[in-house]
UniProtKB/TrEMBL annotation:
Keyword annotations: Signal
Species in which this protein is naturally found: Aquirufa novilacunae
Taxonomic lineage: Bacteria, Pseudomonadati, Bacteroidota, Cytophagia, Cytophagales
Protein's name in the database: YCF48-related protein
Keyword Lipid metabolism annotated: no
Domain of life: Bacteria
Amino acid sequence: MRKNSLLLALFICGFFQGFAQWTPITLETKASFRAIRSHGKHIWIGGTRGTVIHSSDGGANFNVRNVPGADSLDFRDLAILDDKTVLLMSAGPAENGAAKIFRTENGGESWEMAYQIKEKGYFFDAILWEGKQGLILSDPAGPFYGLIRISNKGRDFSLLNPASYPELQKGEAAFAASGSSLQKTKQGYYIVTGGGSKARVLFSKDALNWENIYSEIPGGEGTGFFSLGVRDAKNLWIAGGNYSRIKEGPVPVLESLDAGKTWSPVANAPGYYVEKILWADPYWILSGPAESSAFDPMKKRWISLGKSPYHNVCRVGDRLYGVGGRGQIGFISLSQIQQLFLSKE
């Protein structure tokens, strides 16, 4: 009996070490969340039912609100312009009134609809802010992806007309999963795609002239690259999968050390559906609705962060915050992750 008790204790210890690293945060909401970004100590989260959550103290306290007039909208991404100014991006068919941008300039005390497009085909996937201007990525409504330039602190929006671009594949689109299908580095802009016969990486120095720089991985309906992670202008990661098979990894985790010119598989990468890749110095973080993992590039080692439900993650100080379905929000510290790596040595 003592032997069995010892085995049980070891099993429980091992279980919690492998699957209970994230600390859940309980808030009064059942909305599902995919949008999360940080700016200093400010954390902004967006989700279904027009729900927006804000913390101004690094996650010590959260305020849950609903944007007036947005009850039917799903905020899949957001852009933080400064401590008070935020843009919320709703994802959904434009012809159904779902392609909208809401703006606050008083820290969420009030919101106004800053932009809407109603043309059939538009479906916003991601939004980014570059300091003085921003960019919205939309699914194709014509021969190429929709690109909308943002200026004047989020007050003005204008459709771009790319001068050159590769031909779209049948069914090709970007995924509005974690706001990381569009990224910007010192080199230029990147879009990762899926849905077509090949998952692709597209690149442009100026958002007007685009080229296909990688298309070696099979795609298909619901399958492709969902996220591009940036460590620096040269070191990039891409990953994804199929959103209907969250415990499988039909799309490999790939790394580029030359700004996307060449890509190679990351050895021993986990095989599950990845919606977000994040560089959280000194680790790469992968997260999807089934699991999350960390990779130490110095030691070339992976570690599981558990069976977590988070579509998206962001870093605030020593902590990573994750958001998922049915109001699930949680955090884990980089210090914890370091200890997990040390415990495996």
